[in-house]
Amino acid sequence: MLVGRTRELDVLNSSFRQMLEGKGNILFLTGEAGLGKTTLVHEWWKTAVPDSAIYAEAACSIPIGNVDVGRLEALQPWADIVVQLETHSEKDKKKFDVKKLIHDAAPSWAWAIPFVGDIAHAAVETHRLAKEQRGESETNLNASNQQQVFQQYVNLLTKISETTPLVILLDDMHWADASSTNLLFYLSRQINEKKILVIATYRPDDAIAANKGEGHPIVQVKNEILRYGGKECSLSYLDRTAISELLIKTFPEYKTDDTFERWLLNISDGNSLFVAQFIKTLREDNWLTDYGKFVGQYENITVPPSALAVVEERTRRLDRETCELLRYATAEGEEFTSYVLARLRNAEPLELLKELRRAESEGIVRKIGSSRLYANQTTTVFGFSHALFHQALYDGLLDEEKEVLHRRCFDILKTEWDRLAGTNSRTNSLASKLLTHAEKCGEIETAAEIALEAAHVAWSKFGNVEALEMIENTCRLANIAGSPIPEMKRRHILGEAMLLKARIQNLRGNFDIALQSSAEAVAHFQSTKETTQMLSAMNQKADVLRYKSAFSESLSVAQEVLAIAEKNDDTRGIAGALNTIAILHAQLGKYDEAFTIQTRCLQVAESIGDMHKISGSLNNLGIMYAHSGKVAEALEYYHRSMAIRESLGHRWEVALSLNNIGGILCDHLHEFDNALGYFTRSIEIYEALGDRRDICLPLTGIGTVKYNLGEYDEALAYHRRSLEAAEAVGYQFGMCSALLNMGIVYRVQGDFTNSRSTIERVQSIGREYNIQWGEAQAECELGLINEAESALLDDAGKAAKMKGAVDLLEKGIATLRDMKYNIYKDYEKDLARIKNNSLFLEGEGKGEGEK
């Protein structure tokens, strides 16, 4: 029943009309619990001419126990929307066919449709392979980064909206995962000219208090969306007029009672849930007649202190069977399924549905209308009409009842989890609910294992925030005091969790956390005597040290890995160590040694068919070919490496390959537009991964493209962004590259002061961190600055500057030549030009005469 919402309805109707005209938007409905945000949308939709559009909704999962379930369910609300849209398409395929649209344009979302997901993935892959065998080209539709996943979803909604307008409700976004929030933001940038209206509800107070007081990302995302045309409607509290309207709708023969209405307003603060439910209680207790007339004394009535207290009283008044049924349902969550509830109650499905219809008539639950598959069976999904009903009913269970119900939920969901082994259908939604029940019933080992697997799943689906959340849950479960997990198993789980955390944090540029995590992983695997995993963790540690420019320490760890691997005849460990050692030699300017070691690494990797190591070796050999000026070989090796990386779905490595190919196209082939495309794709992947470390590389690449096109201000802007990214994570290699390029641009612009100070920073970093190419190129660039500055001096000053330029260039070139760093040839041309300058020759002659 809707009252007092004229303003809010006007906003909804206006947004809906604009959407029908092709002006889509995001509308935020905000307000505290009990104000009726969800009810408002449901009641509005009943009057919004539903035949003119399709409506779908999803609610973010509420916390259960110690687990913020919603925060762990990467993209689950949007996946639930897909399921509802698929249900619509099944009813009327003349309008649109979701399965076909996903197959054609959004294969990364096939997992969202139960059962069909794996078939769709397989169909897409079979179709691609068949075209390859016929020699036909095929665009790879499988996403390689989160942005592509997002774009595929936008494309799916766009295709549907071209046939029929769409209205989507995302409820309780203050409980949403970070990826779902980011997808909302991404969609907002492309919705303006589409027939799509997205309504997002959240509670501001809960959003601000989320994440241990740091706030939920929905707050910042909302503010950004509002800046670009989004809308917000904050629900107001009911006033006296609205309360009077509610009483009239409840009691058609109600006579206005100012005192009673003011009293209701005063005790409820205008909270609509409080008022609506408390009126029912007053009627049942005979404080109100059938006509809504208040009888009795106000001071004799026990006033509930909150909306929750009102709801608790309402649930206590349910008949025993309905109350028991709904309490059982709360164990599964705010949303529950007839499949699980039937097994909790040992009830026949038809009898159960009859009882649920009674609960619907009481306004406590509602049929959501979507279905999920359990044991290859479809099942109806229900939800509590308000989170407070779920809370009140769950809190009404005895501790022993909760334990039994969570055990039975665990058994049901664990069976489903095991059934889905080896498929793409083990979602984080299922995992988060399963680990919650596992923990509740004391299955700590299983809970920890599921959390760890879910972390890997989230990471594979571009949800790095959700992956780290799952890792934290893994560690929390494994470290529970008096843990029932056998010690060796516990250590193994923690080792795997820390190794994944190290990899993620290394990519995010959090080197200190990554170093600590990799060290912890090494210690755990040492204690379990798992040599292969220990070597992997040690290699990860060496990699982090390399990015921290601690080259000696990194080389020491890598050599230790090689020695242990050779002693244990661990071929994969040998390949990993050789790869790290080769990279370190290259960064130290020892290209001959690096090439020999990397070639051996490739041979070892090929002998065991390790495609990951093969792709890495090909990429690194490409780098060495590029530095030695063998452009064709470099480009060939880069492309071979990227093809393998794409087939493996290794997104970070693909981004690196794209950057390297862009470098060849820019620096050697001068195909600037093509290079720009590669650098841009690389940045997109790094941004999707949350990589704050290597993103500096393609940013520098774009800066170099802009420099070559003569767009110096834009070039500086990109190099500054690159420098900021590298400085933020302490990536000295990236800092050298960005600063070097900035110094070159300053010099060409005639800003010699900034050019010199910038290049001197490169020289200083190169010396401190043993980055030889950086120090050597800085010396060459300082020589060129001397040459440029000489034009501002008299003849004597010019000659001295030119002499200094020659000395610096000769020193830098000698180092670069020894490193076989092919760029020395460019500097040799500069050196020859300066030496042929008449002022330099004249200065040299004077010097010889004096001697």
Question: Can you walk me through this structure?
Answer:
It contains 40 helices and eight strands. It has 851 residues and is mainly alpha-helical. The strands form two sheets. Strands 2-3-4-1-5 form a five-stranded parallel β-sheet, with helices on both faces. Strands 6-8-7 form a three-stranded antiparallel β-sheet. Helix 5 (98-105) crosses helix 6. The longest helix is centred in the last third of the chain and has 24 residues, at 795-818.
| Relative helix content | 55-70%
The averaged pLDDT comes out at 86
CA radius of gyration is 33 Å
If strands are numbered along the chain, what order do they take across the biggest sheet?
A: 2-3-4-1-5
Question: What's the SSE blueprint?
Answer:
Blueprint: H1 6-20, E1 25-30, H2 37-46, E2 54-59, H3 69-72, H4 76-91, H5 98-105, H6 116-133, H7 146-161, E3 166-171, H8 178-188, E4 196-202, H9 204-209, H10 217-227, E5 231-234, H11 240-250, H12 258-268, H13 272-284, H14 307-316, H15 320-330, E6 335-337, H16 338-345, H17 349-361, E7 365-374, E8 377-384, H18 387-395, H19 399-419, H20 428-440, H21 444-460, H22 464-478, H23 487-507, H24 511-528, H25 531-547, H26 551-567, H27 571-587, H28 591-608, H29 611-627, H30 631-648, H31 651-667, H32 672-689, H33 696-708, H34 712-729, H35 732-749, H36 752-769, H37 772-790, H38 795-818, H39 824-835, H40 838-850
Parallel strand pairs: 1-4, 1-5, 2-3, 3-4
Antiparallel strand pairs: 6-8, 7-8
Helix pairs in contact: 5-6, 5-7, 8-10, 13-14, 14-18, 15-17, 15-18, 19-20, 20-21, 21-22, 21-23, 22-23, 23-24, 23-25, 24-25, 25-26, 25-27, 26-27, 27-28, 27-29, 28-29, 29-30, 29-31, 30-31, 31-32, 31-33, 32-33, 33-34, 33-35, 34-35, 35-36, 35-37, 36-37, 37-38, 38-39, 38-40
